Amino acid sequence: xxxxxxxETGQDKLEVxxxxxxxxxxxxxxxxxxxxxxxxxxxxxxxxxVLPQPAPFVPGHEGAGEVLDVGDGVSGLSAGDRVLVCWLPxxxxxxxxxxxxxxxxxxxxxxAGTPNFKRPGGDVFGFAGTGTFTEEVVVGADCAVPIPDDVxxxxxxxxxxxxxxxxxxxxxxxxxxxxxxxxxxxxxxVGISAIQGARVQGAAQIVAVDxxxxxxxxxxxxxxxxxxxxxxxxxxxxxxxxxxxxxxxxEVVGKSATARAAYENTRRGGTLCVVGAGAMDDNFQVNMxxxxxxxKRILPSMYGGGDVLRSYERAIALWRAGRIDLESMITHRVxxxxxxxxxxxxxxxxSLRTCIEL
Length: 358
Description:
single chain, alpha/beta, about 25% strand
């Protein structure tokens, strides 16, 4: 079986191998044939060590495909079913799940420490307990979510992470109000999804902030009313909000510097929504006076901040209704052998989302 493997954390290239075997099939598990998978910035963050992940590992967590086989005790799934991969399934029994915060369930993270694959040289892990840069993978049955027949695999893959994360940040976490002003810092796939979520919610002004000109141009096509470089952000704040700041600012980069810029461009009493996944040693600082005096809400948003199964259904409904554009988010398509070119395109900002077809 073919899969793209990172041998050591810190390497910037993946090796496509044909001697990888998916392991772990048994009760409660399903074997999937991956048909399409998206390249998400979190995959890069795992490769360079920003996000913790045992190595060697197969990156990828934004995937969709078909069920090949189901283990004992699995109900609701059968061979041939079309599914998307949920990398953060809810166990339904932990305190977070019982509180209704299923997106904070840690059961999925526990899977990251169990090998999903093996090679003649030893065990290989799957990123976030999945690993979708491969032809086949074995996951828990709750990681395989059935999708309707009219949803293409590449669209389902996007919904499996980036779209759900960005839409949910605007709809679930920040709960953007109609007529409000919004700024989004970082306009890759997740940022574009946050822009679309703000548009769905009825925001009056949506300013996209990104250093890459092509991404700024793309943001305008997806609903941004204006797109500026980081150097122009302060001027946009002055022109659009008379210097007061935006009602909502979304940080979709995962850096303390951009989080600080987001904070400073949020109005007093407004909302800073942190969507980007950053490093454990990168500290975001506010002083105690401004924290008290400005009363800005700082809201982290993990995986869209809501029930992911409901979020998947909502994304499909909005896509079907033409309220969000998912097809145009896929700017590049490659086969598995082109994965390293796709990584370079993401690093430079050339791509919004690359679909890897298997």
